[in-house]
Amino acid sequence: MRDSWLPLKYDIDGKKLERQLYIGSKWQIYEMDDGSKSIFALKDLAEKWIEKGFLDSTVFQIINFGSQTIYALNITGEAFLFPLNDSTYPESLNDALAFAHAMRRTRTIDGESPLHDAIYIEKLSLLLPTWSVSEQKNDAQVLGEWLTSGVNISTDSFKRLSSFISWLDKGSLQQVICTAGLKCHVDENDLSDNSPVIQEKEPFSLPGRPALETFFNDYIIDIVTHQERYKKLGIDFPSAVILYGPPGCGKTFAAEKLVDYLDWPCHVINSGSIGSPYIHDTSKKINEIFNKAMDDAPSVVLIDEMEAYVSNRDDGNSGSKSHIEEVGEFLRLIPKAVENKVLIIGMTNYLDMIDPAIKRRGRFEHLVEVGMPSEEEVRSLVEALLKKIPTASDLDLEPLIKQMTEKPLSDCSSVIREAARIAAKTEKDFIDQDSLNAALGVVSKDDEEEERKIGF
Fold this sequence. Notes:
Layout: E1 11-12, E2 15-23, E3 27-32, E4 37-42, H1 43-52, E5 61-65, E6 68-75, E7 81-83, H2 93-109, E8 119-121, E9 126-128, H3 139-147, H4 158-164, H5 170-179, H6 188-192, H7 210-225, H8 227-231, E10 240-244, H9 251-262, E11 266-269, H10 271-274, H11 281-295, E12 299-303, H12 321-339, E13 342-348, H13 356-359, E14 364-369, H14 375-386, H15 398-404, H16 409-425, H17 433-455
Parallel strand pairs: 10-13, 10-14, 11-12, 12-13
Antiparallel strand pairs: 1-2, 2-3, 3-4, 4-6, 5-6, 7-8, 8-9
Helix pairs in contact: 2-5, 11-12, 14-16, 16-17
């Protein structure tokens, strides 16, 4: 307990102080032994609330304790009572509307005082300003940050705000903003595209990769979908991830499927986006991409072939000053980006080449191996791909499955696409065994020719 003005168990009209909940420079909030809550304010702050018309003087009990005069206001019931700089956020449309009503009512009393540091009293439908010296924010910023669990988003950015709030559809979000008395900057396209929010979508699926599908669902999608549940336990946002495995194992495909599902802005770091022959220019471009991703948050940064940019600085082949600078830039930016709601997914064929400092917990929390597909993984993908295509009832998939095992999953898609092309060319309405066998022969021949080219 910090700087308590009154001792615990102090009696106020038969109610005793049980524990301190929140503290400010001129106010404190306590839970009482009967479950109610009491706001204590120094005289000058309480008198300002009275002068501005927020509260009547009769609601306070005046306590003289030592050299201090303290004004006490008791609030009964289970409704919200907390300062806005606390990590308490809405969980439902009703919570959001109640807060919006409080903001609008507050503005009918006082149209100027900043509310970013206010105390929210749901039972009184009030946001009590505290006039602290912290940086001020306008009402659109205050409401946006509260709706998004503390993300720096204003309600003026409706499209960006709606993409982040997973528990509120666009129509309800518009209702909340208007209820607060704020302008809702939304056009017909924003509302007509009232696509389901994340928890209303079909579950994320990654056919052929059940383990990776489970990982994405458990460690990324569930955290994004149920932000409040996780935030209460100290988890604000999904941690950064490295997918590693041999070329062609499907790392990039899996990451892109996740990005499509989240439908967040995506920024890619590869040789085309940050490569430069000029000293310091690569570091500058890295910085620009991360800053843009943070501006677009929630967003995703995909780092392709990351061993090229963050290889071990102790390696004699990678010890140039410019390379050390580039690795240092990644080390600085990764935790900052995650803190600002940027999901980072790195992909590499050579995990052992990456600088150990990058792989430490606190930067990339998860190192996930993606190997070549097993027979069961190939079977799962093939069955998923063929669900949408007419096929013969007696189609034997075993030759395809056995031939594609331990090969890139993209080869399965190529075989089925080729089988469909052959079937259509021969005027068939479905893929039959002859079409599938012919497609297998074509893909096998292409593989052999490619191998000869590499050998040549």
